[in-house]
Amino acid sequence: MHVDTAITSRKSVRRFLTTPVDRATIMHILQIASRAPSGSNIQPWKVHVVAGAAKDQLCQRLLNAVDLGKSDPPEYHYYPQNWFEPYLERRRRCGFGLYATLGIGREDKAKREAQARRNFHFFDAPIGLFITMDRRLEAGSFMDCGMFIQSIMLAARGQGLHTCPQAAFAWHHTLIRDELKLDESSLLLCGIALGYEDTQAPENGFITERESAENFTTFHGV
Fold it and tell me: How deeply is 46 buried, as exposed, middle or buried, from its count of CB atoms within 10 A (0-12, 13-18, 19+)?
């Protein structure tokens, strides 16, 4: 797969087939992704792979917590504390577009919550990945890990697989740390669902729009 195709075909898949993904394929993807750049080559990322019974147990604990309204204070702020334009409108268009694709009305709180709940079993994907880094590192390592996460998603496309990066898990870091026996220095960044796309699912037909490069680029002396 050409790199352009991998990038443009990557999307957040929110319903997967249960078709297994073997360990060798997962390791191949992670080995390719390990070539992601990092400042001074410190490679700050750690990956925790869950599948089978271990994934089922973790997901059940997460779903129980969600159903009881339990969550953790975030260890980092993914989104701004006070939204402003143009970011607020982009976020709204994304959310409204997804729910419209699913036939969920803006006022249908129960169905919106049910869809959000699906995050916590990785949208049926057979493989879940958790990305962590040492909390003693600085903001540059967030950028490094972001490039690593993107590399995972592109390498997955090279294997005919799809992904969904999921920040939602960061609000349940205590439970996940306990289940995976992570030490206190581990900062949970996100999860990633990995598997084969269910091409019949309407939500997978929702493709977010992107700004034209002309709108976010300024040339200086070129």
Answer: middle
Within 8 A by CB and 6+ apart from 102, the residues are 111, 115, 202, 203
Nearest residue to 135 (alpha-carbon basis) of 173, 88, 95, 99: 173
Q: How far apart are CA 192 and CA 135, in angstroms?
A: 20
Distances (CA, A) of 4 to 110, 154, 161, 186: 39, 10, 16, 34
Most distant CA pair in the chain, distance: 57
Q: What is the 8-class DSSP label of residue 11?
A: -
Phi first, then psi, for residue 72 (nearest 5°) are: -105, 150
What pTM, to 2 d.p., does this model score?
Answer: 0.94
Count Cβ atoms below 10 Å from residue 100 Cβ, excluding itself. Answer: 12
Q: Read off the pLDDT of residues 61-117 as tens digits, 9 standing for 90 and up.
A: 999 999 999 999 989 999 999 999 999 999 999 999 999 999 988 888 999 999 989
Query: Which residue shows structure tokens 């001074």?
Result: 40
Q: Are 35 and 152 in contact (CB under 8 A)?
A: no
pLDDT at residue 9 tops 90? yes
* The two structure tokens encoding residue 70: 């339990």
